[in-house]
Amino acid sequence: ISNSVLDNITENLHIPIKSKKTIYAPHDIETVRKLAKKKINIDSEFIIGIGRLQANKNFPLLIKAFKKIHFYYPELNLVIVGEGKDRDKLQDLIKTLNLDNKIHLVGFLENPYPYIKNAKVLVSTSLSEGLPRVLVEALSLNTPVVSTLSSKGIYEILQNKLIPYIVKDYSIDTLSETIIKALKSYPPIESNYYKKFDISYTYLQYMELTKKGDVPSYSR
Questions:
Q1: CB within 8 A of 213, min separation 6: which ones?
Q2: Where do the H-state alpha helices sit in the chain?
Q3: Quick check: pTM over 0.85?
Q4: Contact 124, 150 (CB under 8 A)
C-alpha cells in the first residue's frame, strides 16, 4: 500500500495520527536479480507489459500505442506476459492492426524476470493499482519504466527525474510518445528509487522501531 492510500483511509475514518511511518511490503530484490539471470529465447529488442489476475492491465491501450511506436521502431517487438482470459480479444486486435509478427502473448510465466531485465522498457497501462510490485522489480533490474497514473502510489515509485514517464491521461498518443521518449533517453536508475522497498531495508526499519518501542501506524 502507498502513503496516499493510508492518508485516504485515515481521513475517511477521521483517525487522528500524530506521526506515522509507512513500511512498505518487502521486495526480495536479491532473489529477483538472481532469477533474472536466466536466458530467454528472444533475439530482437522488445518492450514488455506484465499482467496479473487482480488488476485490469488495459493491454488494448498498450497494443494500440505500440502500433504508433512501430512506425518509428519497425524492428521493435512487444511482449505481453500474463494476458489471461483476454487472450482471444487481444489476438483479434493484434491481427486487425497487422502486428501478428511483432506482438507476442507468452501467457503466464513462473519467472518473468529475465524478460523484464532484457526489455528496453517495461510499460504498465493499468486502470487501477495499489503500489505495483512489478515497477519496483523493473527498476531494481535497471529496466526503464513507463506507467499510467493508476494510483497516487505511482509517485512513490517513479519519483524525481522519473516523474515525466508517468502517463496521466490514458491517451494512445501520450502513451506512445512517452514510451518513445523512454526508448531514446532515460535517466539513470538510482538505487534510492527501489531501496526503500527492499526486504533488508524493511527489516532494518522494523528493528529500529522495536528498539525505540514504537509501533508503526501502518505497514504492508
A1: none
A2: 3-12, 29-35, 59-72, 87-96, 113-118, 133-140, 172-184, 199-212
A3: no
A4: yes
